[in-house]
Specification:
Blueprint lengths: L3 E7 L6 H17 L4 E3 L13 H5 L7 H13 L2 E10 L6 E8 L5 E6 L5 E3 L5 E3 L12 E3 L4 E4 L8 H9 L4 E6 L3 H19 L2 E6 L1 E4 L3 E4 L2 E4 L5 E5 L4 E7 L1 H10 L9
Parallel strand pairs: 1-2, 2-3, 9-10, 10-11
Antiparallel strand pairs: 1-16, 3-4, 4-5, 6-7, 8-9, 11-14, 12-13, 14-15
Length: about 270
């Protein structure tokens, strides 16, 4: 790893792909103006509606479509690593999509794809009910991408609750965990920050988390609180509410020093 500035974009995405891409473009450019070399967009950045079935309407074939073109062209135009939090790609049947996090390099070429493994099928105490698996088919494999900046792992939203995913990435050498999300308000208030800090602490890695925020079409409300967390579990920067960008330098020296002085990763026995 080398030191670099990472930025996370917090959005209030709607069911207009065109409008969302326009807004995302403005926010990514704002991050780059502040020196960001890696920019993470949130889950569902290009399309957000209360009902999951809307994703079927905008799902793109592998390697084609306006969302993927936007990511490739923006990364190349700005010369950055750009991470599309989740993009609805066509699945194995017309009734389901893949929630794919797509990573692009400074030349505009795609360098990684991770399909969300853990799907949000829950009944909350508030009465909210979610069945993501009704329209999304799960991925099978974790993703670790080696770049000149760092070794990057990905966990999408609900994935962050499963420490075995992050640990598997850690065993492969992960230095930065990218977490695009659209946490609900009740679960966000209760668990979002503590989960991010826990994954950072136990894997001695940076957690870079971009979230959706506010009210969305169809009655969905998301928590926001995008943040960057260091390997000691300290929150380096955060944006609690509203649309915007938050960024911070990720220090290679800080990572190395924590791992050297507190070598928990070397003490693993299971």
């Amino acid at each position: 790893m080398r030191s670099f500035i990472a930025a996370v974009v917090q959005m209030n995405s709607t069911d207009s792909v065109e409008g969302n891409l326009r807004e995302a473009g403005k926010l990514v450019r704002r991050a780059v103006e502040r020196g960001a070399q890696l920019v993470l967009l949130p889950e569902n950045f290009a399309f957000m509606r209360g009902g999951e079935e809307g994703k079927l309407e905008v799902a793109e074939p592998e390697g084609e479509g306006p969302i993927q073109a936007f990511l490739a062209e923006t990364a190349a135009a700005l010369g950055i690593y750009l991470v599309g939090g989740s993009v609805p790609l066509k699945g194995s049947s017309p009734e389901r999509v893949r929630a794919a996090c797509l990573l692009y390099g400074p030349d505009g070429e795609r360098i990684g794809r991770y399909d969300k493994i853990h799907l949000f099928d829950v009944d909350l105490p508030t009465g909210e009910r979610y069945r993501e698996s009704a329209t999304v088919e799960p991925g099978e494999e974790p993703l670790l991408v080696e770049t000149p900046l760092a070794k990057l792992g990905v966990a999408i939203c609900y994935d962050i609750r499963f420490p075995e995913l992050a640990r598997r990435l850690s065993r492969k050498g992960m230095e930065v965990l990218l977490v695009p999300a659209a946490f609900t308000v009740p679960t966000g208030r209760a668990h979002w920050e503590v989960l991010l800090r826990a994954r950072a602490i136990e894997n001695q890695c940076y957690c870079v988390a971009a979230a959706e925020w506010g009210d969305h079409p169809g009655g969905r409300e998301t928590y926001g609180h995008s943040m960057l967390v260091d390997p000691w579990g300290e929150v380096l920067a955060r944006l609690e509410e509203g649309v915007g960008v938050v960024f911070h330098q990720l220090s290679a020296n800080r990572l190395a020093e924590i791992r050297r002085r507190f070598p928990a990763l070397q003490h693993r026995r299971l």
